[in-house]
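1st attempt posting a full record on here, be nice pls
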Amino acid sequence: MPTFESIMTLIRDWFLILLTPTGAWQLGVVLLAALSGWLAHRRWQAQIDRRQGERKGLHRLAVRGTGRAAFPLTAFVVVIAGRGILSRLEIQTHLLDLLAPLLMSLALIRLVVYILRRAFAPSAALRAWEGVFSTLVWAVVALHLLGWLPDVLAALDGPSVTLGDARISILSTLELILAVAVFMILAGWVSRYIEHRASRSEYLSSSMKVGLSKISKVVLYTIAALIALNTVGIDLTALTVFGGALGVGLGFGFQRIASNFISGFILLFDRSIKPGDVITVGERFGWVVALHARYIVVRDRDGVETLIPNENLITTDVINW
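the predicted structure (as tokens):
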């Protein structure tokens, strides 16, 4: 495979360069940069640990964001300084010339991903995936700087399977996953913003706030999925037949679930039951704690919470005290 052979040849050439005196000097600068970056990262992390109880704000965001870029930024400074010294000594710096933009791009990517994660969706799940996102984006940038990106993309797009008019390859699958992830994150951020604005509104009842939040999530996530599919070139008209068959199957198989969802929206918009109401449903008596898409949460005098399907509130007698 030519791509694999060219990459292996380039790696072998770099290895031979490192065995020369010029390569040894550059390798020494790289090791010094790595050590300096590691020490800077440890020191900055100690500062972050001491500020665990600090209130959220721009200062905390700046400290934590800089901490994520401490290693590549420090290593970048050392590499630039080492490259300047070696250039004055008329020693070639090919390795350092390549390493400098890689380190700077890593620092910028870590900062941008951290800021976007905090701005769009400050959740534990995204915090766990932050490092993965940063590494993947940096890998693409590194391949571009090395000049390998076109060959790698061509290799990923080679093996494929044709289903009807659609051609599915490793590259198209990765593009689909990336598009879905990006648009879902954006949809999640917009829905959280709508929920936040609705919760602070003085003109909406508690039922309307919950209903607006749920409807916005369903609509936004559906739109995000459709846009992601269309972005990667999937013909949405081909999904209509499949969607119709799936809808019929779901209609028969999930009648009760669909009934609970519809009943939930009816309860939200007719405002017959709201969070804080005291109700009796059958033998259950208590305070309505929350309204959800499929059920409501009722807490009795003992603090025990019961999940009551929304359909029961529509089809049976309910006493609202």
